[in-house]
């Protein structure tokens, strides 16, 4: 595991806090800090490289890495996502989900030699990803990867269609998304749709133009793209009031992977020339973005989260000591202090109560969400059914079903995934409301830093929804391996749509065509009209049945998801209240148990003062760490110049 | 214009359309009949015009550039951004004219000028562009004699109205397609490309008469921007050729098109309009030290930068032709040739200078660049397999129109016309050939080892001419006759063998018929 800059300090801080919690006999706090320690240990930012089929994504990743580490080919596209991480020992592991006999999902891992990667992750050896790998994990000794999980995805829109589904499924939870587009032309409508989806789910999105070396007019293209992004959508595209403001923040970065690779590979280039090439390639700027904004941004969020947790723990420990100290210093007041603490404890206990306001907010909110989301889903799918029936009206299903079924699947998937994304947004909002109410209920009892939005408004300290929403490769791999097995049959088509959503993935697919265009639009001349009518009505019924099944499954799915969210949130806040209660109980006990004997009392007082000082010291360290992180990611990055190309 | 009509198909088609026109010419003047009449009149008129070939494809695939390359003149405007926003027809005519046709059918002249850069159409005065249905450019050019070329706005544009214009021209709802054949440009095969090709070929209609197969046979897919596919290196177009080969065999694309070829449109256009000044500039560049020029050509930016390295500047200053490769000149070269084009041109010029043979002057450079760009192959395929089957493609458009009219504006007395249509659809041997070719290409028919290729050829899969069908170098009369008779015998045995499957026997019978056609066409010469 690589820990740079503040990372090591942070690990140490959390470890120290854990030791303190153990020493002061607070296993509950220790448990909580253990979770934090794990999160701090793996704090690599996930960066997705997405874009249309054959846009030069892998080439760009290679240029970022400073050498051809991943296989590229003029014709054969990447079919399996490849995750690049930093490590001293180069190696590649292929991962796929397998179904255990007892129905559980687990993963199978197979190490392969890096040279044979093309056999497994491109159309060359693994067309349409028939082998069913969920992803390949390449460990590379490239410093630029420190703190990153750089994911090279299969392109969207290629003839091997399932690839594009996995691209969409990867989007949620990414720390940054690089949308790769050709510098030879303006963004196309599907590309803009991809940017829009990415911007909705990821904090940092950039359009990376490739091959500026071949296109003399890339500056104009970059300007045109800038214009499209600022407008958010095409001129005169009329309908659809999509949120566009977010696209202003999307940057356009022109790059030339060829130049950067040329500089990296030609050993006998003068250093000066190589540096000029790298500068011209624009790759350095992209690296800077990744390091200064993405890695540092994630780092800053992590530091904030971890130091907040440490401060909460310190505060709880300190409260106990402070009460004891006050009682020791003035035994006459000991009972009053104990009574006050008891009162606080009762309030903390009330926080756990089912009748607490935050609990009601949570329960009512989830109930509302269940019905809203279900309504939304039905509404979306009803539109699909209407479209499908209109299309079937004009064609003979016997001839068109082969084209129709995938279209239907795509539309249904799009509807379901839009619904899932929307559900996620609403759930996040609910979680924040619950947190706010919890904080208000516990005002005066809760340590001030425990809950409430962080300075950048990024939500809860321990973001429980974020944890739920984080994409789970294993789960996804499982779904995908099933997809491969069942491809071809109509039943398979139905299941795929469901499985991918069961995996908790959003698969918005902007790459769809209308049914009318797909099926051709000439009316039928069929003398056997009756047979045709029967076929049409059977097809329509099949569509309705399918959509009903999907609503049933997806509805159950979202209810389960929400119940899980409800449980997680309840547990999170209840545990917080419990910890608090324990703290206060310990405090009350300490206040009650004040020694009558003067000498012992002053000895204990000195002890307590010393303990309190230690805890304060720890809290100070956490505060310093936190201040340093919020002082700005820019500073921490400037000390890490890229030392890759041109060396 | 009188069209060669070897199969008599156009004549038969004309009589079907005439029959339908007669039918709808009388009767009530309700909107449906009026619509039917308009569709049929258009279909009838198209039979006597040159073939309509649409250039379609995604945004910035290089449609206008390729159109210029095919015509050999810069008549369609091109630009780095999205440029073609209207469906524009380029027709051969005695004198130049540009006419705007509004959606409501009204027409008006559009001012234009012509300079070294090509045709400039002044669209400033056309008012609301949404009102304009299409632009008609009449242009006297040999390149347009055989086919009317139709330039279309790119698909998948962010400006949706532009893409919609193309769709409503090539795959409209209420008319047969405006194009008889399509040259479809793409960078790589996307699923959306396949969707478009399916819609044009209308494979869903594949049943009667196999018109879907005919539509597919009138589609040529061009892997445009071949230079970029291969990364702009010297072997870029070769690499792109391999990619095209792979697409030719792709099961998703194979049934949808005649073939796939790789073309560097920009280089093709420039090569066909090469100027002497460009030749001398390139020659000067080829004389400069190679390593330095290569370094200069690492990126477009470097090449057009204000100051080239001293070594290059020095070499250029002492150029015997006195060429000044100043910044504007280099910029223009980049504009016209692209990185790959300049690399290719200087390479062949260097070789020519070294050996004193091959590429030594402007015409030989143009010729070599046309070859390297892949345009030569495209023109061959286009003329032999698409323009050469003009009868089939035009008949298809016209019969689809009749079919559409009979379906949408049904009449109780349409029986005889419908029967005639059905007879032609199922009976015309030219259609049968196309249908079976498509079936063979999709591997639906199991023919004995090694005979499928011959069957495809004899059915006209590589061109309709006798020599192409028989696989002869050149069609000297007696050769053709002997070869055709020999093939006829061979396939007759296959057709009659009880061991042949039904589908294979159908193919064999059609091949026999094609051979008979070849021999029949020879007979007049025998006397």
The order of strands across the largest sheet of chain B is 4-3-7-2-8-1-9-10-11
Work out the radius of gyration of chain A: 29 Å
Major sheet summary line of chain B: 9 strands, mixed
Outline of chain B, from the CA principal axes?
globular
Cα end-to-end separation of chain A: 25 Å
Q: Taking strands numbered 1, 2, ... along the chain, how are they ordered across the largest sheet of chain A? A: 4-3-5-2-6-1-7-8-9
Structural class of chain A: alpha/beta
Number of strands of chain A: 9
Describe this structure in words.
The complex is a heterodimer of chains A (647) and B (527). Chain A has 647 residues and is an alpha/beta fold. In chain A, 61% of the residues lie in helices and 9% in strands. Chain A is built from 20 helices and nine strands. In chain A, strands 4-3-5-2-6-1-7-8-9 form a nine-stranded mixed sheet, with helices on both faces. Chain A is globular, with a radius of gyration of 29 Å. The two termini of chain A are 25 Å apart. In chain A, 51% of the residues are buried. The model of chain A is unreliable at 1-6, 160-166, 234-244, 448-528 and 633-647 (pLDDT under 50). Chain B has 527 residues and is α/β, with parallel strands linked by helices. In chain B, the strands form two sheets. In chain B, strands 4-3-7-2-8-1-9-10-11 form a nine-stranded mixed sheet, sandwiched between helices. In chain B, strands 5-6 form a two-stranded antiparallel ribbon. In chain B, strand 3 (97-102) and strand 4 form a beta hairpin. In chain B, helix 9 (265-272) runs antiparallel to helix 15 (362-373). The longest helix of chain B has 29 residues, at 327-355. At the A-B interface, helix 6, helix 7, helix 8, helix 9 and helix 13 of A face helix 4, helix 5, helix 7, helix 8 and helix 12 of B.
């Amino acid at each position: 595991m690589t820990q740079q800059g503040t990372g090591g300090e942070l690990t140490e801080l959390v470890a120290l806090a854990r030791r303190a919690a153990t020493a002061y006999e607070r296993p509950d706090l220790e448990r909580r800090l253990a979770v934090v320690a794990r999160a701090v240990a793996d704090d690599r930012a996930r960066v997705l490289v997405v874009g249309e089929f054959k846009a030069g994504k892998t080439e760009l990743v290679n240029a970022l890495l400073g050498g051809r580490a991943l296989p590229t080919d003029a014709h054969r596209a990447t079919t399996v996502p490849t995750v690049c991480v930093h490590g001293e020992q180069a190696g590649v592991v292929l991962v796929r989900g397998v179904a255990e006999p007892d129905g559980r999902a687990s993963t199978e891992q197979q190490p392969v030699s890096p040279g044979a990667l093309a056999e497994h992750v491109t159309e060359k050896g693994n067309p349409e990803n028939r082998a069913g790998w969920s992803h390949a994990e390449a460990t590379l000794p490239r410093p630029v990867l420190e703190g990153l999980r750089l994911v090279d995805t299969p392109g969207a829109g290629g003839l091997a269609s399932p690839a594009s589904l996995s691209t969409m499924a990867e989007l949620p939870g990414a720390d940054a998304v690089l949308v790769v587009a050709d510098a030879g032309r303006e963004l196309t409508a599907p590309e803009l749709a991809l940017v829009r989806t990415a911007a909705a789910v990821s904090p940092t999105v950039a359009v990376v133009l490739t091959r500026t070396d071949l296109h003399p007019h890339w500056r104009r293209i970059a300007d045109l793209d800038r214009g499209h992004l600022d407008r958010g959508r095409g001129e005169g595209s009329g309908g659809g009031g999509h949120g566009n403001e977010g696209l202003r923040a999307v940057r356009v970065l022109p790059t030339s992977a060829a130049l950067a690779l040329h500089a990296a590979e030609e050993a006998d280039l003068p250093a000066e020339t190589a540096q000029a090439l790298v500068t011209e390639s624009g790759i350095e700027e992209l690296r800077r973005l990744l390091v200064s904004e993405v890695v540092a941004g994630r780092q800053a969020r992590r530091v904030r989260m971890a130091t907040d947790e440490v401060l909460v723990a310190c505060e709880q420990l300190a409260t106990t000591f402070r009460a004891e100290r006050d009682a020791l210093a003035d035994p006459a007041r000991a009972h009053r202090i104990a009574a006050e603490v008891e009162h606080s404890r009762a309030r903390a206990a009330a926080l756990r109560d089912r009748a607490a306001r935050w609990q009601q907010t949570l329960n009512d909110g989830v109930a509302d969400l269940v019905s809203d989301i279900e309504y939304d889903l039905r509404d979306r799918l009803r539109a699909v059914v209407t479209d499908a029936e209109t299309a079937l009206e004009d064609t003979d299903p016997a001839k068109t079903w082969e084209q129709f079924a995938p279209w239907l699947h795509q539309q249904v998937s799009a509807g379901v995934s839009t619904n899932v994304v929307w559900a996620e947004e609403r759930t996040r909002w609910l979680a924040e409301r619950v947190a706010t109410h919890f904080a208000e209920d516990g005002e005066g009892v809760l340590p001030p830093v425990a809950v409430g939005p962080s300075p950048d408004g990024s939500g809860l300290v321990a973001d429980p929804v974020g944890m739920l929403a984080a994409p789970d490769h294993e789960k996804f791999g499982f779904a995908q391996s099933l997809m491969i097995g069942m491809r071809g049959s109509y039943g398979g088509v139905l299941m795929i749509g469901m499985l991918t959503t069961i995996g908790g993935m959003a698969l918005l697919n902007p790459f769809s065509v209308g049914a009318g265009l797909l099926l051709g639009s000439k009316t039928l001349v069929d003398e056997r009209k009756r047979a045709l009518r029967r076929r049409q009505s059977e097809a329509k019924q099949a569509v309705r049945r399918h959509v009903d099944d999907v609503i049933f499954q997806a509805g159950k799915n979202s209810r389960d998801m929400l119940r899980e969210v409800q449980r997680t949130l309840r547990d999170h806040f209840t545990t917080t209240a419990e910890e608090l209660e324990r703290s206060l109980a310990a405090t009350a006990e300490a206040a009650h148990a004040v020694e009558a004997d003067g000498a012992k009392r002053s000895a204990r007082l000195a002890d307590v003062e010393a303990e309190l000082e230690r805890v304060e010291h720890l809290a100070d360290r956490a505060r310093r760490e936190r201040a340093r992180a919020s002082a700005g990611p820019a500073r921490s990055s400037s000390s890490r110049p890229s030392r890759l190309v041109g060396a | 214009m009188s069209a060669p009509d070897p199969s008599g198909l156009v004549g038969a088609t004309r009589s079907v359309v005439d029959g339908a026109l007669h039918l709808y010419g009388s009767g009530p003047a309700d909107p449906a009949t009026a619509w039917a009449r308009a569709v049929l009149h258009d279909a009838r008129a198209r039979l006597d015009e040159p073939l309509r070939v649409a250039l379609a494809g995604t945004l910035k695939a290089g449609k206008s550039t390729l159109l210029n390359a095919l015509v050999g003149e810069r008549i369609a405007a091109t630009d780095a951004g999205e440029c073609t926003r209207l469906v524009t027809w380029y027709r051969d005519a005695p004198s130049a004219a540009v006419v705007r046709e509004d959606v409501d059918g009204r027409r008006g002249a559009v001012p234009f000028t012509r300079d070294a850069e090509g045709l400039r159409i002044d669209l400033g005065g056309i008012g609301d562009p949404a009102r304009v249905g299409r632009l008609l450019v009449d242009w006297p050019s040999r390149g347009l004699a055989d086919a009317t070329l139709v330039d279309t706005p790119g698909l998948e544009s962010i400006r949706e109205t532009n893409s919609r214009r193309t769709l409503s021209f090539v795959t409209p709802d209420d008319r047969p397609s405006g194009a008889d054949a399509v040259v479809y440009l793409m960078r790589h095969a996307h699923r959306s490309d396949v969707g478009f090709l399916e819609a044009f070929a209308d494979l869903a209609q594949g049943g009667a008469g196999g018109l879907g197969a005919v539509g597919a046979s009138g589609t040529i897919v061009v892997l445009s921007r071949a230079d970029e596919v291969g990364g702009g290196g010297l072997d870029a177009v070769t690499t792109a050729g391999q990619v095209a080969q792979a697409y030719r065999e792709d099961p998703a694309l194979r049934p949808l098109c005649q073939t796939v070829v790789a073309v560097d449109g920009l280089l093709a256009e420039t090569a066909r309009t090469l100027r002497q000044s460009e030749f001398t500039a390139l020659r000067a560049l080829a004389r400069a030290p190679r390593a330095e020029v290569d370094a200069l050509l690492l990126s477009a930016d470097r090449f057009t930068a204000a100051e080239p390295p001293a070594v290059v500047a020095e070499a250029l200053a002492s150029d015997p032709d006195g060429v000044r490769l100043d910044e504007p000149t280099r910029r223009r070269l980049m504009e016209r040739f692209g990185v790959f084009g300049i690399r290719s041109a200087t390479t062949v010029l260097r070789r020519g200078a070294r050996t004193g043979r091959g590429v030594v002057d402007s015409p030989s450079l143009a010729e070599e660049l046309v070859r390297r760009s892949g345009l030569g192959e495209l023109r061959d395929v286009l003329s032999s397999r698409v323009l050469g089957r003009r009868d089939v493609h035009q008949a298809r458009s016209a019969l689809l129109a009749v079919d559409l009219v009979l379906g949408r504006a049904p009449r109780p007395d349409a029986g005889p016309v419908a029967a005639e249509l059905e007879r032609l659809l199922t009976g015309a041997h030219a259609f049968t050939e196309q249908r079976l070719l498509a079936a063979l290409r999709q591997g639906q028919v199991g023919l004995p080892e090694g005979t499928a290729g011959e069957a495809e050829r004899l059915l006209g899969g590589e061109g309709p001419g006798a020599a192409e069908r028989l696989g002869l170098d050149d069609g000297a009369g007696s050769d053709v006759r002997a070869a055709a008779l020999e093939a006829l015998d061979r396939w007759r045995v296959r057709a009659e063998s009880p061991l042949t499957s039904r589908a294979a026997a159908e193919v064999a019978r059609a091949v026999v018929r094609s051979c008979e056609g070849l021999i029949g066409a020879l007979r007049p010469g025998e006397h």
